[in-house]
Amino acid sequence: MDKWIMGVDLGGTTTKLAFINIYGEILHRWEIPTDISEKGKNITVNIAKAMDTKLNELGEPKSKVMGIGMGAPGPVNSLNGSIYEAVNLGWKDYPLKDLLEVETSLPSFIDNDANIAALGEMWKGAGNGARDLVCVTLGTGVGGGIIANGALVHGVSGAAGEIGHFTVVPENGAPCNCGKTGCLETVASATGIVRLANEALNSFKGETSLRGILDIQGSLSSKDIFEAAEKGDQLGKDVIDQVSFYLGLALANIANVLNPEKIVIGGGVSKAGESLLAPVNDYFKKFAFPRVRQSTELSIATLGNDAGIIGAAWLVKARLDE
């Protein structure tokens, strides 16, 4: 009997689930709402019920599933699979692995959601099998995952790969949700890009389509800003250049330390594609050590929302093969 792996990508609003074969192919994919009430105590129960319900629908026994991999927000204790803290879920020192195994009676493996996305891109995405890889996700915030010689880098307290909290604006930087100021997240996330554009609008004297969009919509999106830049809008171009400078600088410094084969840029902002990649690459080459510049390739992630569930499946496969 061909075994399946259950991949889980836990988000604050929805939880993505999938049965995946040992070759990384998604066989069945679905979602359930994430119940964050009562400090998230129902999350593992709901995942177990969702798995059992889907297996019943498919007429398959639980013995078909070899294990569960899960990406969760917040730093993870890689030794015991507990969550140090996930503020949005109300978890603190939460024994996620133990609870998931109790509810499902299956071996379970937990890691940070950005780390899991990096594993997915390494296995089946833009990483294309690279064993030294950095994945940076540009969404509402900025996350990161580091893979060295095929293994995730966790650090002493599970906080390795916090790329979003590189300080790139050392003076007069905007406040970050982490409590610091001037973090990469404040200038390269979707919300950070919009903030830069709104600030620029206050002092920009020339013509810009973004002012009209703001008047009509009441707010801007990072997509609006990239589209304006592509059409030659000067303010849009200035903002994207600023974002690219900060991101290129941060990625060059990461690469100078790690010398990865690939840096993969994912998350919602990465949908801008070449409009983001090209200027970031220019600044990356400016700031990277020459040998790093020659050996590290930047690329846009290819798995989209499936990176987490595929990476979670890889985690199970790798751990059970040990």
Largest beta-sheet characterization: 5 strands, mixed
Order of helices and strands: EEEHHEEEEHEHEEEHHHHHEHHEH
- Write the CATH fold name of the largest domain: Nucleotidyltransferase, domain 5
CATH architecture designation of the largest domain = 2-Layer Sandwich
Write out the CATH superfamily name of the largest domain: ATPase, nucleotide binding domain
Kindly report the average pLDDT value: 95
Task: Give the tally of β-strands.
Answer: 13
Assigned CATH class of the largest domain: Alpha Beta
Which value, in Å, is the CA radius of gyration?
20 Å
Morphology call: globular
Sheet/helix structural class: alpha/beta
Strand content: 15-25%
Task: Note the total helix count.
Answer: 12
Helical residues, percent: 40-55%
Strand order within the widest beta sheet: 3-2-1-4-8
Give unreliable regions as ranges: none
Number of domains: 2
- First CA to last CA: what distance? 21 Å
